[in-house]
Design goal:
Blueprint (H helix, E strand, L loop, with lengths): L3 E4 L9 H16 L3 E4 L11 H14 L22 H13 L3 E4 L3 H14 L14 H9 L5 E4 L6 E6 L3 E6 L7 E3 L7 H11 L4 E5 L6 H11 L5 E5 L2 E2 L15 H6 L4 H9 L14 H7 L10 E2 L2 H14 L2 H14 L9 H11 L8 H5 L1 H4 L7 H8 L4 H13 L6 H15 L3 H13 L7 H32 L1
Parallel strand pairs: 1-2, 8-9, 10-11
Antiparallel strand pairs: 3-4, 4-7, 5-6
Helix pairs in contact: 1-10, 6-7, 9-11, 12-13, 17-18, 17-19, 17-20, 18-19, 18-20, 19-20
Length: about 500
């Protein structure tokens, strides 16, 4: 059997972590088995579905590198790939079930359904519908229709026995049919429900494996009942574990979980994000953690997906992202950095390609996410210098800082070569003349030029700032230090 899997998001918001992991696992399973990855859009909720959400989902999938073989923009022989364009198909299959006696019209109002739920919760447990419309005769239905009631169409479940399947991740799973209810296939507006449309589409699109979150486990017995009623062979099901926050509770925004688009804006790169998502429930072994998308495509298998909940750990995501940034060839790392900075409004025309490459190189391994470019590179990206209060307080306690910075400014101004090597010679030479350690002069200069105690190499900083800005900052900080030191002395 050829492998065909699908990811079927609803375009009612952004692509979040859980959905992105589901999409990734489906994509990887397809690639590992030389199968087909289908993207299907479940947009029957017209009130909430938007073009903006659809565009955001597609952009996020593309950014992650999850190219779909069939679906929106790609086309395919099993389309259309929007559920809103498949309504006639649902109506036709619903009519077939009704003709076979496996579905019936339900005229219950929302108030009647709520009363039934309350009654059943008291008498029989968590069932939600008591099947009252299942036994209506033609006359009773006619009377209800005469009242102007519009009927939904419900599936007639067999209450005897159990429904079970061998899950690719969880093993044997079973539900007693008596705990299930006659569920709605078509709402009163003729729109299909999730379970019904999902089964029809998976069958019509020849889906071989359904890989999804374990929050869908309760849907599976209903869907299997539909497959049985139609006489269709169901796909294989694989329900992957839920994702929990670091405190063990259900994942939410307070744990840092947000949309893929937001992580992109926060400076994470596709390789780091994909690696992190893959490890939220899957592992190759007990030691290997770094994977490219290509490596995952070759190595992924459902057998290695854990039944246990995955823990969402932002520190792990940042570490993985840093590792992938470090492994990138310098030109590629620089290109990603410039793309991010341009998106953040920085004018790349202000400096040469050589300057930008040197800027990214100077920040080096401090950059764990691309957002760190602005954090650690603020000294070169912003005109105004902001000095960290703690760093300034420590600088005020050191002796003769004003004089030393002024003399360094003079040396930098007179350095005609203005190269990394000449700037280092000038700085170390001055420290020797002053009779102090080079590190003492350099730490003061680092604060004066970057506003921080910890920053890229001092001579890289000077070169990036240029002679004029470096001299101006050294002299400005020298003047401020002298003035505040004088006031402190009274």
């Amino acid at each position: 059997m050829s492998v065909r899997v699908r990811f079927a998001p609803s375009p009612t918001g952004f692509l979040h972590v859980g959905g992105a992991r589901t999409a990734l696992y489906n994509y990887l399973f397809a690639r590992a088995n030389r199968g087909t990855f289908v993207l299907r859009i479940e947009d029957t909720d017209a009130a909430r579905s938007t073009e903006e959400s659809l565009s955001a989902i597609l952009d996020s999938l593309r950014w992650l590198g999850l190219t779909w073989d069939e679906g929106p923009e790609a086309g395919g022989t099993y389309g259309p790939y929007f559920q809103s364009e498949r309504r006639e198909l649902y109506r036709r299959h619903a009519a077939a079930l009704q003709a076979a006696g496996r579905a019936y019209p339900c005229y219950c109002t929302p108030a009647e359904l709520e009363a039934a739920r309350e009654s059943l919760a008291t008498e029989r447990g968590p069932l939600g519908y008591d099947g009252r419309c299942r036994s209506l005769d033609a006359a009773a239905r006619a009377r209800l229709e005469a009242e102007g009631r519009r009927a939904a169409l419900r599936f007639a479940l067999d209450p005897a026995g159990e429904t079970a399947w061998d899950d690719e991740v969880r093993g044997r799973v079973s539900f007693r049919n008596e705990v299930l209810e006659d569920f709605v296939l078509l709402r009163s507006d003729s729109l299909p429900t999730y379970n019904f449309a999902c089964v029809v589409d998976d069958r019509e699109m020849a889906i071989s494996h359904v890989i999804r979150g374990d929050d869908h486990i309760s849907n599976t017995p209903r869907q299997l009942a539909l497959y049985q009623a139609f006489g269709w062979t169901p796909p294989r099901f694989a329900h992957v574990s839920m994702i929990l926050g670091s405190d063990g509770s259900r994942l939410s925004k307070r744990h840092g979980a947000t949309s893929v688009a937001a992580y992109r804006e926060l400076g994470y790169i596709p390789a780091g994000m994909v690696n992190f998502l893959a490890l939220l429930g899957w592992a190759l072994d007990d030691k290997t953690e770094l994977f490219t998308l290509g490596e995952l495509e070759r190595r992924f298998s459902l057998e290695r997906v854990s039944r246990n909940p995955a823990i969402f750990n932002l520190e792990k995501l940042e570490w993985l992202n840093a590792q992938h940034l470090k492994r990138l060839p310098e030109p590629e790392r620089t290109a990603l950095a410039l793309e991010y900075l341009a998106a953040r409004g920085h004018d790349l025309r202000l400096h040469s390609e050589e300057w930008w490459a040197a800027f990214v190189r100077a920040l080096g391994e401090r950059v764990k996410t691309l957002a760190d470019l602005e954090r650690y590179g603020a000294f070169a990206l912003q005109e105004a210098l902001e000095i960290n209060p703690e760093a300034w307080a420590e600088l005020l306690e050191k002796p003769a800082v004003g004089e030393r910075l002024l003399r360094l400014a003079d040396r930098v101004e007179g350095d005609l070569a203005f190269s990394l090597e000449s700037l280092e010679r000038a700085t170390r030479g001055l420290a020797g003349e002053l009779g102090i350690k080079a590190g003492e002069l350099m730490s003061a200069a680092r604060v004066a030029l970057t506003g921080r105690k910890f920053a890229p190499g001092l001579f890289d900083v000077m070169w990036l700032l240029g002679r004029e800005t470096s001299v101006a900052r050294l002299r400005a900080v020298a003047a401020r230090w002298s003035a505040e030191s004088a006031r402190a002395r009274g």
